[in-house]
């Protein structure tokens, strides 16, 4: 019964945590028994069971309970099979979604060598716009996972494709994650390539794309700032934050609702 398999999947993470805490008593139980079940359920015929398996896998990865060898030899191969060009549409959509979600939990080397080539292929998937949209929505996370060099060499060309996609929802998704993509690139790429690209989004024919681009305008501009002087930085969750700065001798202090600036200089 699918409901039984779904319930089983929901129990896998707490059992895995228990086995991890009791590892001297159960040194190989998780790898021998539980991990093969999780991997098998990623291809279950019932979508609710697959969804439960995907959620269990993400929890296990987040808790750092899956070994590097299992990730490379069991998890990644099955996701690559499910996201292959000739894979079933529903399986492919689910696979690209979980690839994007797990990228931030894996090592940079694993993502770059095992998952990044397939992600780049999926960005150009001409059959399913849902696949391209998932790629566009998570583009910033993938850039952050692989770093500047791989982003500029492999991902920026794909980002240009998605920003000019015929489906306006794709362009809107790109506008929404523009700041995260920009933050991963060098100042030169940001200035010479991403700035003109952003102008094209802010001038888009679709008002929803333009609106999303205008909402990202401030965050995008902030990526040009020097974090040490501007106090702007990107948190791990991808949000823009302001680091509190200590007031020095050349600082502005509010006084009676008027900003008064003090300086050591003799001239006004």
Automatic annotation (TrEMBL):
Gene3D superfamilies: Leucine-rich Repeat Variant. HEAT repeats lie at residues 115-154. GO terms for molecular function: protein phosphatase regulator activity. InterPro entries: ARM-like (IPR011989), ARM-type_fold (IPR016024), HEAT (IPR000357), HEAT_type_2 (IPR021133), PP2A_Regulatory_Subunit_A (IPR051023). The keyword Acetylation does not apply. Coiled coil: none annotated. Transmembrane segments: none annotated. Keywords: Repeat. GO terms for cellular component: cytoplasm. SUPFAM superfamilies: ARM repeat (SSF48371). Pfam families: HEAT. The keyword Repeat applies. This is PP4R1 phosphatase. It comes from Tricholaema leucomelas. The gene is Ppp4r1_2.
């Amino acid at each position: 019964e699918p409901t039984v398999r779904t319930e089983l999947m929901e129990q896998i993470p707490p059992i895995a945590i228990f086995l991890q805490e009791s590892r001297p008593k159960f040194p190989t139980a998780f790898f021998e028994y539980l991990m093969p079940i999780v991997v098998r359920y990623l291809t279950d015929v019932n979508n609710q069971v697959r969804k439960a398996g995907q959620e269990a896998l993400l929890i296990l990865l987040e808790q750092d309970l899956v070994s590097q060898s299992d990730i490379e030899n069991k998890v990644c191969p099955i996701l690559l099979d499910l996201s292959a060009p000739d894979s079933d549409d529903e399986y492919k959509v689910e696979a690209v979604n979980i690839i994007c979600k797990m990228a931030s939990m894996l090592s940079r080397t694993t993502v770059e060598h095992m998952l990044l080539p397939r992600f780049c292929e999926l960005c150009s998937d001409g059959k399913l716009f849902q696949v391209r949209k998932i790629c566009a929505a998570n583009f910033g996370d993938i850039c952050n996972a692989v770093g500047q060099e791989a982003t500029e060499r492999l991902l920026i060309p794909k980002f240009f494709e998605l920003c000019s996609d015929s489906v306006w929802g794709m362009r809107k998704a790109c506008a929404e994650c523009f700041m995260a993509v920009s933050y991963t690139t060098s100042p030169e790429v940001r200035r010479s390539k991403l700035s003109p690209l952003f102008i094209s989004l802010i001038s888009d024919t679709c008002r929803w794309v333009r609106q999303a681009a205008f909402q990202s305008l401030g965050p995008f501009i902030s990526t040009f700032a020097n974090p040490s002087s501007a106090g702007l930085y990107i948190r791990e969750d991808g949000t823009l934050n302001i680091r509190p700065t200590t007031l020095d001798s050349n600082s502005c202090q509010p006084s009676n609702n008027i900003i008064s600036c003090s300086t050591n200089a003799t001239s006004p």
